[in-house]
Specification:
With 697 residues, the protein is α+β, with helices and mostly antiparallel strands. The chain has 26 helices and 24 strands. A hairpin with a 4-residue loop joins β19 and β20.
C-alpha cells in the first residue's frame, strides 16, 4: 500500500469516526439519556432539560421554588412526535421552559399511575384528555393547569401566562391546586355498598337497553367516530347472547367483528390491528399497533370462532399471531415488545398505504382483481393513497372473472405476498422494545385463548415460554412483580394491572395444562395483592402498592373498563375463579362485594363496565366447574374447548389431586367428567355430550 493510499485510508477512517462521534454526542443531552424507555430516549437529546419522574426532580423543584412541567406521552404517539418537533426541539421554547420550570418527561406506559393522576386533573379542569398530556404543577407536584397538543406559539403563550400568574398570585394558585387535589381524591372515591342482595337478570337487561342505544347497527361498533375495538365489550356480548339465546345481540357482534377485520383497522397484508379508527366506517385507522389491543383481539376472534365457526376468524387469529411473532416478540427472553409507531419517514401510516401507481406496477395483470377485492376506487382514497379493506361482495368478482372462491382467495394471497415483500423494503415504523408485565399477560391470555380454540402446539409453547419469562424475570424476591423490562433490566414496581392480568393469564394457563404450578403462582400473587393493594374500607384494590404511595397525590382505585379492562374488574373475576377452584369463601365474598360496589354505576356508561358485566353473568346465571379426571384428560379438555360454553371454568388432573373439587374423583382406567355448581357435583359422565346435557343456563 502506497503512502498516498494509506493516508486516504486513514483520512476516511478519521472522518467515519468523527461523524459517528457527532451522532453519539449531539449538541444537547439531558437526564433522560440513562433511561431505558424508548419514549424517554426519544427526548434525551432535546434542548429542554428533561428529568425523569423521581425524587431528584421533585426535590430540585422545591429547592429552586419552580413550577413543574409534566409532559406525558408514549413512543407510538403521533401527536407526541409532532409536538416534540415543533416545540421541544426548538431552542427558543427550550430556553423558556428551562429558565422558568423544572421539566419532567413521563412514559405513560411505564408510569400509568402518574398518567392517571394528571389525566383526572385534566378532566376536572373541563378539558378533553389525550396525549401528549401536558400539565403544569406546583413544586410539590399538585396540578394547576393542563392541556394536550399545542402549537409552538400557543404552548409558549400558555406556559408563560401560567408562570406569571403563579408568581403574582401564589396564594390563590396554591388554594386552587389544593381544591383540585381534593377533587381528584373524590373523583377516585369508591364507597362500600352495605346492601348485598341477589343479583337478577333485570340488572343486565337494563344495562343493555341503556348501552344498546349507542350501537351502530350498520357499521358495527359504537355510533359515530372515532371507533375503538374494545374487545371486552364483544366478549361479554357473546357470552350474554350464548346464555340467553339473544340473536339480535349475536348478529350485532358478528357485524362488528366482520367490519373491523375487513376494514383499514386491520392490516390486510401483514396481520394485526391498529389502535382505532378515526372515522365511523373503520376505514382510516390511527396506524400505531399496540400489543394490548392485539392480545385482546386474538382472544376475541378465538372465542368468536367457537361461536360463529367462521374460517375468516381463524385466519385473523393466525395472521395476527404471525405479526406478533415477526415484529413484537423477543425470542431470547420469550417476552413481547410494546408497540409499533404510527409514523415512518415522518408520515403517519406511510408504511401501510399504497398509491394506485405502486399497485399497478407491482401487481401488473393481477391489479384489476386486486383493486376490486380491496376497494381501490376514488370513494376510498385517503391523502392520495389507499388503505386496503376487503369488499363484502366477493360473488360479483367471482362471476366477473369466472373464478371459484378458492381460486380468488389464492390469487389475492399471491398479491398480498408480493406486496408484503415490497413493504419489507420500506423504512419501518419505530419499535417500542420495552416489555410491560401487564401487556405481556394480556398477550399470554391471547395465546391461551388461541390454543383453546385451535389446539395448536405452537401457541402452547409460546404460552409456556412467556409465562416462564414473567416468573423468572418479573417476579421480585418478596413475591411481587416488576412492571417493566428492557435489556435484562426491571426497575419499576408492578401496578395492580400487572398482578390482575398475570393472575388471570396463569389461571388460563392452568386450564390448558392442568399444571397446578400456575394455579399456585396465581394464588400467591393474589395473596400479595390482598396485603399490598387492598383497601379494607371500600373492599376494592388501589392501583398502586402501599409501598409506592409517596410522590403521588392519591392512590387511585381504577374501576372503569377502557381499552384494557379495569384492574379491579379483572382481579374481581380472578377472586371469583380462585374462590371456586379452592373453595375459598373469603375470595368469593370479596368478589361479590366488589360487584355490588359498582352495580349502580354500570348504566352510566355501557362500554366502561363490560368486564364487570361478565362477572355479573357469573353471579346471575348458573356457573359451572367442569372437573375432568383421568388419563385421557387432555383430549377431552381440547374437545370441550371447541364447544361454545360460557360461564364455566375447567379444573382437572391426570390422577388424584389435593384440590377439594378433585379429591377422591380419580377412577383408575377411566377419564371422568364432573359437572359441578358451587362445589356440588352431579353424577359423573364418561362422554362429553352427556356431560354437556347437564349444563343448563
Amino acid at each position: 500500500m502506497t503512502m498516498r493510499i494509506k493516508f486516504l485510508y486513514l483520512f476516511f477512517i478519521f472522518i467515519f469516526f468523527l461523524s459517528y462521534g457527532q451522532k453519539k454526542n449531539p449538541m444537547y443531552t439531558n437526564k433522560l439519556v440513562d433511561e431505558t424507555s424508548p419514549y424517554l430516549l426519544q427526548h434525551a437529546y432535546n434542548p429542554v432539560n428533561w428529568h425523569p419522574w423521581g425524587d431528584e426532580a421533585l426535590k430540585k423543584a422545591k429547592d429552586e421554588n419552580k413550577l413543574i412541567i409534566v409532559s406525558i406521552g408514549y413512543s407510538a404517539c403521533h401527536w407526541c412526535h409532532v409536538m416534540e418537533k415543533e416545540s421541544f426541539e426548538d431552542e427558543e421554547v427550550a430556553k423558556l421552559m428551562n429558565d422558568n420550570f423544572i421539566c419532567i418527561k413521563i412514559d405513560r406506559e411505564e408510569r400509568p399511575d402518574i398518567d392517571q393522576m394528571y389525566m383526572d386533573a385534566i378532566h376536572l379542569m373541563g378539558q378533553r384528555g389525550g396525549w401528549p398530556l401536558n400539565c403544569i404543577a406546583l413544586p410539590n407536584g399538585k396540578p394547576i393547569w393542563g392541556g394536550t397538543y399545542l402549537k409552538k406559539d400557543d404552548w409558549m403563550q400558555q406556559i408563560k401566562a401560567v408562570n406569571n400568574y403563579y408568581l403574582k398570585n401564589t396564594k390563590k394558585t396554591i388554594e386552587y391546586a389544593n381544591k383540585l387535589v381534593e377533587g381528584i381524591k373524590q373523583y377516585n372515591l369508591v364507597e362500600k355498598e352495605n346492601e348485598i342482595d341477589r343479583l337478577t337478570p333485570k340488572l343486565i337487561e337494563e344495562y343493555l337497553i341503556s348501552w344498546g342505544k349507542s350501537w351502530d347497527m350498520k357499521n358495527g361498533g359504537r355510533l359515530g367516530a372515532p371507533k375503538f375495538p374494545l374487545p371486552n365489550n364483544y366478549i361479554f356480548l357473546m357470552e350474554y347472547a350464548s346464555i340467553t339465546k339473544n340473536t339480535k345481540i349475536k348478529d350485532y357482534v358478528e357485524l362488528s367483528l366482520d367490519k373491523m377485520s375487513s376494514s383499514g383497522l386491520y392490516d390486510q397484508i401483514g396481520g394485526g390491528f391498529c389502535r382505532y379508527s378515526t372515522d365511523q366506517y373503520w376505514h382510516v385507522p390511527h396506524f400505531e399497533k399496540m400489543l394490548y389491543d392485539n392480545g385482546q383481539l386474538i382472544s376475541l376472534y378465538s372465542k368468536a370462532h367457537s361461536l360463529f365457526r367462521k374460517k375468516e376468524y381463524k385466519n385473523i387469529v393466525y395472521e395476527t399471531l404471525d405479526f406478533i411473532e415477526r415484529e413484537l416478540y423477543n425470542t431470547e427472553f420469550g417476552c413481547f415488545y410494546s408497540a409499533l409507531d404510527a409514523d415512518s419517514d415522518g408520515e403517519e401510516g406511510r408504511f401501510y398505504v399504497w398509491s394506485e401507481k405502486e399497485l399497478k406496477e407491482y401487481l401488473e395483470e393481477d391489479y384489476a382483481i386486486f383493486a376490486e377485492f380491496y376497494k381501490i376506487d376514488s370513494e376510498y382514497i385517503w391523502e392520495e393513497n389507499y388503505i386496503l379493506q376487503k369488499t363484502h361482495n366477493q360473488s360479483k368478482i367471482l362471476d366477473k372473472y369466472k373464478l371459484s372462491k378458492n381460486e380468488l382467495l389464492e390469487k389475492i394471497k399471491e398479491c398480498d405476498n408480493e406486496l408484503m415483500t415490497v413493504r419489507s423494503r420500506r423504512n419501518r415504523p419505530g419499535l417500542d422494545d420495552k416489555s410491560l408485565t401487564s401487556w405481556n399477560a394480556i398477550m399470554l391470555k391471547g395465546y391461551i385463548d388461541a390454543y383453546k380454540a385451535f389446539g395448536d402446539k405452537r401457541f402452547l409453547n409460546i404460552c409456556l415460554k412467556n409465562a416462564s419469562f414473567i416468573k423468572k424475570n418479573q417476579k421480585k424476591e418478596d413475591g411481587g412483580l416488576f412492571h417493566n423490562f428492557k435489556n435484562g433490566k426491571s426497575n419499576i414496581n408492578g401496578f395492580l394491572e400487572d398482578y390482575a392480568f398475570t393472575i388471570e393469564a396463569f389461571i388460563g394457563l392452568y386450564e390448558i395444562t392442568f399444571d397446578e404450578k400456575w394455579l399456585n403462582e396465581a394464588n400467591e400473587l393474589l395473596k400479595y395483592c390482598l396485603i399490598n393493594f387492598f383497601d379494607k374500607k371500600s373492599e376494592m384494590f388501589f392501583f398502586t402498592s402501599k409501598e409506592d404511595s409517596t410522590n403521588i397525590i392519591t392512590r387511585k382505585i381504577e374501576i372503569s373498563d377502557n381499552v384494557i379492562p379495569a384492574s379491579n374488574s379483572s382481579i374481581s373475576k380472578s377472586l371469583f375463579y380462585l374462590g371456586k377452584i379452592y373453595s375459598n369463601n373469603n375470595y368469593l365474598d370479596i368478589s361479590n362485594q366488589m360487584v355490588h360496589n359498582i352495580k349502580n354505576r354500570i348504566n352510566t356508561y355501557g362500554p366502561g363496565y363490560s368486564n364487570w358485566a361478565i362477572l355479573i353473568l357469573h353471579n346471575i346465571y348458573p356457573f359451572y366447574e367442569l372437573a375432568i379426571v383421568g388419563e385421557n384428560y387432555e383430549n377431552i379438555t381440547k374437545e370441550i374447548f371447541q364447544k361454545n360454553l360460557p360461564n364455566k371454568i375447567i379444573i382437572g388432573s391426570k390422577k388424584d389431586s389435593e384440590l377439594s373439587i378433585l379429591k377422591n374423583k380419580y377412577i383408575q382406567g377411566n377419564t371422568t367428567i364432573y359437572v359441578c355448581e358451587d362445589g356440588t357435583c352431579k353424577l359423573p359422565a364418561n362422554e362429553i355430550n352427556n356431560a354437556i346435557k347437564l349444563i343448563k343456563y
